[in-house]
Design brief:
Strand content: 5-15%
Order of helices and strands: HEEHHEHEHEHEHHHHH
Helix content: 40-55%
Structural class: alpha/beta
Number of strands: 6
Shape: globular
Largest sheet: 4 strands, parallel
Distance between the termini: 71 Å
Radius of gyration: 23 Å
Length: 289
């Protein structure tokens, strides 16, 4: 009985504490949150446009959220050990981190249909099942439409965050076209944020090399760096059971590098570098206006 009573006392203290916190947050006795409290919490906590209602977004913009981040992923093969939607999940999560660090940004929906090479005859990643590709003019048209929509609603700076190297030039072309006088952006500006992608190719890779990993192991696609970064964002995207040290990883598998020693801890280095570089570059772009 002593043990049972001892277990009840912490529960009682938790109940009283929960009541105090709940009342302060707008809850009513009984621990059921009021509708108003739920709405305020949901509207204020998210940075993702698609999770807001139209009036909530309108009010967020009016309150100073003048930066719109456009995350760009891609649906492609990522070796036998990573899911096809890796880029989409990763850029969605990292864009959220960047938006929260900035404090006045909103994240638009991820663009997941991107140029991946010709379909017939298949080129590049299109040689592997599941890769989806669209022509560059179509992709650029989607980017332009997204920008014009966001500017219409009041955003002053629209930033492309490209998680894939293959379409960086497309982002730059669209930004250059829309930033020309007479493009109709009402004084808004488009930024093709090269720093987002380059952070994974320069600073992150440099850190891995400093830790003793060779360039051949780090790789350029589905290798140590790419796989570690994905593990840090969402381990469910990686089939860890396939990361065998004895396996021979080759381009015929869609792998350029060696992911066997990949880890979430190594990936956190990449997350930090991407967020730091992106936030710094966006702030510099805003200051230069």
């Amino acid at each position: 009985m002593a043990g049972l009573n001892a277990g009840r006392r912490p529960l009682a203290r938790f109940a009283v504490g929960a009541l105090v916190v709940g009342l302060a947050a707008g809850w009513v006795p009984g621990f059921m949150p009021t509708a108003h409290a739920r709405v305020v919490s949901e509207a204020s906590s998210t940075v993702y446009l698609e999770e807001m209602t139209s009036p909530e977004l309108r009010d967020r913009i009016a309150g100073g959220a003048t930066v719109a981040l456009v995350p760009i992923g891609g649906t492609e093969q990522n070796g036998p050990h990573m899911v096809l939607g890796k880029h989409n999940v990763r850029v969605h999560a990292l864009a959220g981190r960047i938006a929260r660090s900035l404090g006045h940004a909103v994240v638009a929906p991820v663009i997941s249909y991107v140029p991946e090479g010709a379909a017939s005859p298949p080129q590049a990643h299109m040689r592997f099942a599941g890769t989806l590709s669209v022509p560059e003019p179509v992709f650029e048209g989607v980017l332009e439409g997204a920008v014009r929509s966001l500017v219409q609603h009041g955003f002053r700076t629209v930033v492309f965050l490209g998680d894939h190297g293959g379409y960086q030039k497309c982002e730059e072309r669209v930004a250059a076209r829309l930033n020309r006088p007479g493009a109709g952006l009402k004084g808004a500006r488009v930024v093709a944020l090269r720093e987002y992608y380059e952070a994974t190719q320069t600073r992150y890779v440099a850190n891995l090399k400093s830790a003793g990993f060779a360039e051949a192991e780090i790789g350029t696609h589905a290798g140590l760096a790419d796989t570690s970064l994905t593990l840090a964002v969402d381990p469910a995207l990686v089939r860890v059971s396939l990361l065998s040290a004895s396996r021979k990883w080759t381009p015929s598998d869609g792998v350029y590098g060696n992911p066997a020693r990949a880890s979430a801890d190594l990936g956190q280095i990449g997350v930090q570098r991407i967020v730091e570089s992106s936030v710094q570059a966006i702030r510099a772009a805003e200051a230069a206006r």
